[in-house]
Amino acid sequence: PDAPQDMVDAVRQAGRYVNPEVLARRVRAVLDGDARDDLTKVDVPVLYIRAEHDRLVRMACASEIQRLRPATSFFSIAAPHLVLQREPRQAAGMIQRFTDGLNEK
Q1: What's the rounded Cα separation, in Å, for the pair 90 and 19?
Q2: Model pTM greater than 0.90?
């Protein structure tokens, strides 16, 4: 409800260009997707930026990632879904800190 109007307009505009059948397939793919086995095989540093007010991605997802790959770096931002679009500067700062930490190792 507090999203900037230009962002709301941009999301709506983008939605107009996607065929409803394509959008439905994408949503099904997201809902049916399960990359847990793949995640356990990842051998590079992983950063997870969690939107604290995300009503689409449940907190249980972050907990499952933590369980499967304990070395994951977690950062939270007080924002809704589309956290990178809503808080780009804060997210960029977190990404910068994460990558700076990689360079120190």
Answers
A1: 33
A2: no
